[in-house]
Specification:
Strand content of chain B: 35-45%
Oligomer: heterodimer
CATH topology of the domain at 1-49 in chain B: OB fold (Dihydrolipoamide Acetyltransferase, E2P)
Strand content of chain A: over 45%
Number of domains of chain A: 1
Largest interface: A-B, 29 and 33 residues
Number of helices of chain B: 0
Strand order of the largest sheet of chain A: 1-3-4-6-5
Structural class of chain A: mainly beta
Shape of chain A: elongated
Distance between the termini of chain A: 20 Å
CATH architecture of chain A: Beta Barrel
Number of strands of chain A: 8
Radius of gyration of chain A: 14 Å
Chain lengths: 95, 92
Amino acid sequence: MKVGRVVGTVVSTVNIPVIDRHRLLICDILDVSGDASGYTIAIDVVDAGVGETVLILDEGTSARQILGLDWGAIRAVVVGVIDELIIDGELREAS
Amino acid sequence: MQLARVLGSVVATEKVEGLEGVRFLVIQPLDKALEPSGESVVAADAVEMAGPGELVYFVSSREAAEALPERFVPVDHAIVGIVDDVHIGESS
């Protein structure tokens, strides 16, 4: 899993059926310094909001398991909102 | 998933089994500011209605084939949605 920050949303009405009714979040992927090293569009299952630091899963089989699917082109899912992130004993994120 | 702009289409009559009827489009991956990022790639169009100039989002790697009716095919990028709007920095 990766640490990310929600920076926006994507609105889409034409999509493959497995994405129907799911919120799509644009998330920066953060490195250990807290800097963005890229982004991903992830499905939200925890009601995360813009500005929140989140836990992002980026693996297909686990993503399908969370969404209760046997198949489907799904990879990135926001699976948690991070309350605290401590690296080298230093508090990097606090809610 | 990543954002991309559709640049054009690919026509290939001779293809491996399982890819019959699959539309292929050339897409340019974009960063979140919608600026080009990296090399263009050929992606299968799983929504079957994306066209040149459109803003789309796509899935990479093995999951791409999961977007198609025949799931065990050699496809590594698939367009899975057409973007209506991108909101950056707004709560929703």
